[in-house]
Amino acid sequence: MPYEPLDLETATPVLSWAGHPLADQENKMARNVASLPFVFKHVSLMPDVHLGKGALVGSVLATKDAILPTAVGVDIGCGMHAIKTHFKAEQLEGKLRKIRQEVEALIPVGQGENREVETAVTNWQGWEAFADLHPGVSRSKQKALKQLGSLGGGNHFIEVCVDTQDTVWLMLHSGSRGIGNLLAQRHIDTAKDLAKLSELKLPDPDLAYFVAGTPEFDAYWHDLQWAQEYARFNRDVMMARLKRVVEKHLAGGTAAKPVLSVNCHHNYAEREVHFGEEVLVTRKGAVRAQTDDYGIIPGSMGAKSFIVRGKGNLQSFCSCSHGAGRRMSRNKAKENFTLDDLIAQTKGVECRKDEGVLDEIPGAYKDIDTVMAQQADLVEVVATLKQVLCIKG
Fold it and tell me: pLDDT for 122-142, tens place per residue?
């Protein structure tokens, strides 16, 4: 469906693909962002839009000569990685439990970190620039080293999926772990301090920003790019481990090149050209969907996921949603659902079925088919996946 211009009485328009009215707080957050003088053209809201901090999750904004750290968020570079394998679904029969146990032993989840650091991690070229990052993270290198190749918690996951042709896919969702969060918080604090010193009037303190050409902007942009690369490599390391385990059980350890590999951010910023001008595009819970870009739009623990190809829709700044989006908070999910509900809604999926992941129950998320229908003008579906194994922190 096409976008709907929202009537928020702002100088900068807000275009929504949500297909439903926004709640009062969501409207307020959209209005606040759209009121900022450096926002370019309009703000675009994806079908999975919901409340965030400062800016809505599922929002895309282009800016001229300024950037909002909270519009990127604290999990810098969070995103998805998926590969299409040569394996068929029948080869997984009777092996999912063992695969899950071995992957969980290889990839730390939650607050965990690697006990040993592999050569690929220590040789990552990004370590050369670590000393140039914000001074507030200088003592965190060892932790960042040990967390590279770890999943984290919340809605991050590792999955084995099967598409409609019974082909096996491997997929995971993670970001820049503790170091990305720490970098984001340090720069957000700096932006807020600058706003106070200059007595800048903002509609929300969380919308403190950096102006291009200042040392603070340059420092944030440098650290942002570093954290985004850390996040991408983090997914690469985990995918390599997941692939080895699956190949061990399905091919006796014989490695094979993936048929297709997609690794995309959905919490990040980059320089792009839109409407003939170079701008800074910030996607907070949104995936780049330029013409022929591959992207990943996951559902929930018990729902379908999609590999998509972008259509280059200019009004969305060539973007699409990053998932189904939550329809209720984590606390509300725990209040509304039981362990029996979780077991029923994840039937047929090899995964944890305990109260520790109750807040990730499929019922806490929007219907992924509805979300996909609302962005038919943004992407085309390349593959439809259904998970048969899911690991969460």
Answer: 999 999 999 999 999 999 999
The confidence score (pLDDT) of residue 268 equals 98
- Domain of 175 in residue numbering reads as 4-327+365-392
Q: Exactly one of 134, 173, 265, 322 is catalytic; which is it?
A: 322
> What digits encode the pLDDT tens for the residues 212-241?
999 999 999 999 999 999 999 999 999 999
- The number of domains in the chain is 1
For tokens 């899950």, name the residue: 100
61: in domain: yes
Is the pLDDT confidence value at 2 over 80?
no
**Using CA atoms, how far apart are residues 31 and 143, in angstroms rounded to an integer?**
39
Q: Are strands 14-16 and 39-50 parallel, antiparallel or unpaired?
A: parallel
Compute CA distances 140 → 49, 64, 113, 183, whole Å: 33, 33, 13, 10
Q: Which of 16, 47, 40 is nearest to 30 (CA)?
A: 16
| pLDDT of residue 1 exceeding 70 | no
Q: Are 299 and 281 in contact (CB under 8 A)?
A: no
Contact 310, 336 (CB under 8 A): no
Tokens of 215: 């040392």
C-alpha 370 chain-centroid distance: 20
Q: What is the CATH number for 88?
A: 3.90.1860.10
Domain assignment present for 83: yes
Q: Cα separation of 58 and 266, whole Å?
A: 9
Helix pair 215-251, 177-197: axis angle to 10 deg: 160
Task: Write the CB contacts of 137 (distance below 8 Å, at least 6 apart in sequence).
Answer: 144, 179, 182, 183, 186
| Residue 134 annotated among the catalytic residues of the structure | no
Structure tokens at 386: 């259904």
Digit-coded pLDDT (tens) for 59-77: 999 999 999 999 999 999 9
Dist CA 356 CA 364 (whole Å): 14
pTM above 0.85, yes or no: yes
Mean pLDDT of all residues in 254-278: 97
